[in-house]
Amino acid sequence: MATIYDFQETEMSGQPINFADYKGKVLLIVNTASKCGLAPQLTGIEDLYKRYHDQGLEVLGLPSNQFHQELDSDAATNDFCQMHYGVTFPMTRKVRVNGNDEDPLFTYLKATAGHGRIKWNFTKFLIGRDGQLISRYAPTTTPEKFEAAIVAALRAEPSTAKSAQ
Known about the structure:
two-stranded antiparallel ribbon; alpha+beta; 26% helix; Glutaredoxin
């Protein structure tokens, strides 16, 4: 069976993102969309990234146009997120989060969480230092509501972190 560390994505710049590089880190994975009414959450997500990155938090945004709320090009999405929300965490090229041609990462995350379809943009997955899913958060769950879970995950040692699925 695959682990989170078996996946790769492509950053908007074209650079590969190898999830094996995240071993021992806490990882927050978010499917994003620039034109979504929930896009202001990017400010809170960026704030968490800035405050906790030095302690081991990594954030990865995966834009999706599956709900018809993303800009036409990856470059436009990247510029929009930086200009309007100050995003500095890595963003990937657009992916699909549901269906036969969904990104394999989302197939894995949904199966691991025990939940089906991604119902809307800004579904969030928190992965512990041990590579295990801690929680899946609904689109309307703001970053402030799961900050304590991030702090707890950051305090856990990689070898002792527990999954709280």
